[in-house]
Amino acid sequence: MCGIVAYLGKEEAYPILIKGLHRLEYRGYDSAGVALIDEGDIQVYKCKGKVSELENHVGENSHHGSIGMGHTRWATHGQPNDENAHPHQSNKGNLAIIHNGIIENYATLKEELINRGHTFQSETDTEVLVNLIEDIYRHAKVSLAEAVRISLNEVVGAYAIVVMDRDNPGQLIAAKKSSPLVIGIGEEGDYYIASDATPIVEYTKNVIYLEDEEIAVINRDQELKIMNLQNQKVTPYVQELEMQLEALEKGGYDHFMLKEIYEQPRSIKDCFRGRMNLQKGIIKMQGIDDNKDQWINARRIIIVACGTSWHAGLVAEYMFEDVARIPVEVEYASEFRYRNPIIYPDDIVIAISQSGETADTLAAIELAKKKGAHIFGVCNVVGSTISRATHSGAYTHAGPEIGVASTKAFTAQITVLSLIALSVAQMRETISNERLYRLMAEINSLPDKVAQVLESNDQIESISEIYKDVANALYLGRGNNFPVALEGALKLKEISYIHAEGYPAAEMKHGPIALIDENMPVFVIATQDESYEKVVSNIQEVKARKGKVIAIVTYGDEQVKKLADYTIEIPKTDSLLVPLVAVIPFQLLSYHIALMRGCNVDQPRNLAKSVTVE
Ligand code: AGP
Questions:
Q1: Ligand 1 centroid from CA 306, angstroms
Q2: pTM, 2 dp
Q3: Residues 6+ away with beta carbon under 8 Å from 393
Q4: Which ligand 1 atom lies nearest to the CA of residue 610?
Q5: Residue 543: which H helix or E strand, with range?
Q6: Whether pLDDT at 244 is above 80
Q7: Is 547 helix (H, G, I), strand (E, B) or coil?
Q8: Which helix (H) or strand (E) holds 311?
């Protein structure tokens, strides 16, 4: 979805806005724009393409002013072009707006405004909103903040907006509903507004996360005021940011995705640091301990998530059912919320989200909440909407994930979910101490094992060279490696644009095997576990149809080595934790293949890091 940023203070706004847009570009990158108030006029610069193209577009034109706003877009209404790029101005040109979200009833509002003489340059819902605000501002003779409040009471949908008035260059109005918005309070009375904290952290650590249906009135050198849509005053809640600036840099890697793949030994360790005491055999998860009875008496666990987080949920299903003996259902959040699901008050709903802003997952949470379930969140972004919408939760501490293709968040999610499952198993006495200690020791060894697999990067790069021009690919796995096959296929699809499918290995005979010929690479997870022999037979079935097999095997495996075209070895790991290690080669394969195909691995086409609209 889009990234929005705004500034009001003593400094030149333009450089702050441009740097902020670069930080937010992973949220959407099909067009960008800025607006500044300078000498009583609004200067708007916007164009199709990335922020770097916007900078070229602005070039030497004057871009002064200590108040301004910026936007990087992921198109929802109206194709990516100069007209539909943000910011948008009202008909009279006195108001400018940036918006992240979707105004669902914009067509009705637009019709009414056209009947009232308004005209439109773009196809966007956002231009409708700024003209609605202008219409009320002019006819109702109210303050800008009040015009915004009245307008938003007519709006149906999701929004994070910032509005400014040419005739009042000392004020910004910001508001949010569903889409994220954070306000940074600078030392010198400067204000920074953005979709997340990444554009703010280098200027201040003091932030306010606006809640749904709140409006912030920000005046130069004055205390900011917050009210809600019912015009009630709200006391601002200032929090301290934990994020570090250097975490937002590439740290010497060519791409954020590669950096984040190589950060996994550290990010997995940060997940269990302070949560696992090997000596005492204790797992300490505050969110679990605070709701012990809920977990001990839970009838069922329902996991809701999207994309890679959904795959982590599928892996967790095996762990929870095996060690905690609780039935688990893993649901696509987007389907779950429209299916009228049966939810009991003694169900626990685990919502998994890296960004903590995914609209489908948020909507699934709201539905389950209404039905009385206890909602436990597993999020990576501190202070995100989902982390504040759940009853309890656990952060994954993977650090900011900038690459659109999720990597370290996936292994961090599985690590945290494994700790939760073991902690609940200990509470429900469904696991022997011997097995608990062994699994805790295995988790403790994961950072080293992942580091070992990363040493195979060169071999994986050379295998990528061989398959970089394929049109299709199949990924196969059994048991909790099936979700890893799905994840491997998703990684290849989303950054190299090669069509790929993940399947349970046994399911192949029921159809997909028809796709196999000498042009079809088949990536198989064939690690030493109870289904090994079955996977070997599946590999023979593929080879019998001249398919090319690239197998992930356990160190020292000789049998599959004789069958497969290529094998990538990984350290022996408890079968419940293999997914954390087996996924690494698939992450690197997709990275190298995408790079060799000249794709933008950090900002793949048509995608965005967090999907804040349904
Ligand atoms: C994964 O690489 C994608 N970026 C996407 O599938 C992502 O996992 C999905 O949008 C869910 O995002 P979330 O974890 O932030 O909720």
A1: 6
A2: 0.85
A3: 287, 376, 377, 378, 379, 387
A4: 15
A5: helix 532-544
A6: no
A7: coil
A8: helix 307-319
Average pLDDT over residues 531-536: 96
pLDDT tens per residue across span 452-480: 999 999 999 999 999 999 999 999 999 99
379 is catalytic: no
Look at residue 607 and give its three-state secondary structure: coil
pLDDT of residue 291: 96
Residue type, 185: I
Alpha-carbon dihedral 292, 294, 297, 303, rounded to 10 degrees: -110
Q: How many CA atoms lie within 13 A of 65 on its CB side?
A: 28
User: Comparing 403 with 222, which gets the higher pLDDT?
Assistant: 403
Q: Give yes or no for residue 152 having a pLDDT over 80.
A: yes
Our answer on whether the CB atom of 494 is closer than 6 Å to any ligand 1 atom is: yes
State the Cα angle at 478 between 448 and 588, rounded to 5°: 45
Among the ranges given (27-31, 471-475, 510-514, 520-524), the one the predictor scored with the smallest mean pLDDT: 27-31
Q: Contact, 258 vs 217, CB < 8 A?
A: no
C-alpha of residue 400 to centroid of ligand 1, in Å: 14
CA angle 7–8–14, rounded 5-degree value: 50
For 40, the token pair is 């009583």
583 lines ligand 1 (CB under 6 A): no
| Residue 74 pLDDT level (bands cut at 50, 70, 90) | confident
- The letter for the amino acid at 124 is T
For 41, the token pair is 């006029």
Amino acid residing at 567:
T
Residue length of the chain: 614
**Residue with the two structure tokens 């970089």:** 468
Q: Phi then psi for 319, rounded to 5 degrees?
A: -65, -50
DSSP assignment string, 225-267: EEEETT--EE---EEE----GGGGS-TT-SSHHHHHHHTHHHH
CA torsion sign, 496 to 501 to 503 to 506? Answer: negative
Neighbours of 596 (CB within 10 A): 15
Neighbours of 240 (CB within 10 A): 8
